[in-house]
Amino acid sequence: MKSLVEPAKWERFVWPALACALFLALWHFLVIWSGTKVFPSPHDVEEGVAELATKSLLSRYAGDSLRRVALGYGTAIALGIPIGLTLGWYPAANRVVNPVFQMLRFISPIAWIPVSILLFGVGDTTAIFLIFLAAFFPIVVACADGVSNVPVMYRQAGRNFGLSAGRLLRRVIFPAALPQIIIGLRIALGIAWLVVVAAEMIAVDSGLGYLVIDARNSGKRYDLVVAAMLMIGIIGLALDLLFRRLKDFKSVRWGFRDGA
């Protein structure tokens, strides 16, 4: 159900900004209080970000990570949505393949790293394949469940209006299942963004994940390590906010029932 009291526009920005300020202040004072010479302060990280930006490493590494996610995640969408819709539309087929999909879904993408390196060697293809695996199964399951959960009355209404099976799926079932599909896509994107960091620590020599491990191994530059970690978090937040905005589109909102 929708909240009875909608927050004011200024609250949507002021309170998150205040929370960030408090986080930075706590971080700063904890570094001072502990007297650590290893863990960087916010100012040290700021200087590290400036150094990376000056050398154009930050934008290049962030771009490499986003490119790999776009390729792996995009391929997972291109294959996962049609397969998921088909399985949801044909319950008998779903019952046959569902155990296999569920089994593969619970295998961590990280566990596929040795197999991926064996198949594709060390390079971009390995990282993209791992991202694809991370996103593919959640998308298939979300699409199949979304179609299966569409109320029967929607199908009956479409048939009463003389819609063919293809038009019924395209114009009624898919829009009704779209909210659940978007939730699955959002979850899959989060997993994909986590996996690209792990893959880049092992399989490639660029990207934000590589920056974390390289800064640690090359002179123990923990200011750069934390800078890369913060960039990973900020980009992940931006991607998640983008997906949360999708539910505001009219073509999606009608599928949300009970004001969800």
Q: Order of SSEs, N→C?
A: HHHHHHHHHHH
β-strand amount:
under 5%
Distance between the termini: 5 Å
Quaternary class: single chain
**Largest sheet at a glance?**
none
Give start-end ranges of low-pLDDT stretches.
none
Q: Tell me the radius of gyration.
A: 22 Å
Please count the beta strands (DSSP E, at least 2 residues each): 0
What number is the mean pLDDT?
A: 84
Number of helices: 11
Task: Using the alpha-carbon principal axes, give the shape.
Answer: globular
**Helical percentage:** over 70%
Instruction: Look at the helices and sheets and give the structural class.
Output: mainly alpha
Describe what this molecule looks like in 3D:
This protein is mainly α. It has eleven helices and no strands. Helix 4 crosses helix 6 and helix 5 crosses helix 6. The protein starts with 8 loop residues before the first helix and ends in a 7-residue tail after the last helix. The model has no long low-confidence stretch (mean pLDDT 84).
Present the secondary structure layout.
Elements: H1 9-34, H2 42-54, H3 57-89, H4 91-105, H5 113-120, H6 124-148, H7 152-160, H8 165-202, H9 208-217, H10 222-246, H11 250-253
Helix pairs in contact: 2-10, 3-4, 3-6, 3-8, 3-9, 4-6, 5-6, 6-8, 7-8, 8-9, 8-10, 9-10
